Amino acid sequence: MKKLALALSVVIAAISSPAIAEGNAEAGKTKIIVCSACHGMDGNSMIDMYPKLAGQHATYLQKQLHDFRSAAQTGGKDGRMDPIMSGMAMPLSDQDILDISAYFSSQAIQVAEAKDVPELGAKLYKGGDVSRGITACMACHGPDGKGAELAGFPTLAGQHASYIKIQLTKFREVGRHNDLNGMMQDVAKKLSDNDIDALSKYLSTLK
What predicted TM-score, i.e. pTM, was given to this entire model? Predict the structure, then answer.
């Protein structure tokens, strides 16, 4: 709860801070040819191990690209190391990152039709599990899974279930640690494989 309170303070600080630099979506469209091989020309990846970038908050995309680039520059000591993305982000300028993020953010995400949505996924997302100290996911990511851009919380609605599952597992095993104040690591370490599977499938169907 302390970390959640901290996150809320970040929102307040962001609201009162100077305007965030914006990219040019049209310029970004000319810079995403390499990105499209995995993420699609419109940010709707057809490969479920790679995230959909369409409709994601521009500032979140910027942070991830900066973190990937930082990891490449420091040999993984800082940022977010990924064998593919760190190499892709390495040559990007700050303006490239702004423009690419603006482009993907401006696109519309395509959400798969709901099939079997695990009841457990909805339960954990909306209410958490007090007995295990699991905070409801919607406290940060919102009731509709759209996140909170000013606080740095990404939109999760409609994301590939496989990708969400991979990232939650990485957070749980501390294979990924570029989250705000370790919040996602704290939550993920309390989740079982079944919890992660249910949450991932539930989020993939949110529109």
Answer: 0.89
